[in-house]
């Protein structure tokens, strides 16, 4: 038989890989584009390596066209964030099942649940349900970013301005979901 602890340790493995993936992503994307200008570079005297070191960056972008025309940094982060959210969504589904009247294996703290409008004795697992829904949003942002970049030539294109909203929303959604999920899991009780 598989214990509850063994089951949860599967998620520990997933989240450990997610953390490694995010750290690896940071190493690749944490590059200084300073000096790339509009796409052809600049003759202004810059010590780009020094600025990169001062800012704690991994290095500088070597090619000005690549620095201004690609958004692979946003896509790579969004892909890593999507995997974190997929793992949270899978765990959410199990928490919802385990908390249901059919199973009754666990209880979540009241602060992360609400009562039913027609069944006051019922406790709805709001945070896991919302996390499941927000996963679709983050995955949608990834698809949107990939679609944004699919046919662009090497140049700074106005299309690229459309990367901010999905990227920033992905960051905010991931941070908020991880924070509230950690708080909720700290109060989970096994019956």
TrEMBL record:
NCBIfam families: argH
Gene Ontology molecular function, alphabetical: argininosuccinate lyase activity
Similarity-based family: Belongs to the lyase 1 family. Argininosuccinate lyase subfamily.
Name the UniProt record assigns to this protein: Fumarate lyase N-terminal domain-containing protein
Sequence ranges assigned to domain Fumarate lyase N-terminal in this UniProt record: 1-140
Annotated GO CC locations: cytosol
GO biological process, one term: L-arginine biosynthetic process via ornithine
Biological classification of the source: Eukaryota, Cryptophyceae, Cryptomonadales, Hemiselmidaceae, Hemiselmis
InterPro entries referenced in this protein's UniProt entry, alphabetically: Argininosuccinate_lyase (IPR009049), Fumarase/histidase_N (IPR024083), Fumarate_lyase_CS (IPR020557), Fumarate_lyase_fam (IPR000362), Fumarate_lyase_N (IPR022761), L-Aspartase-like (IPR008948)
Organism: Hemiselmis andersenii
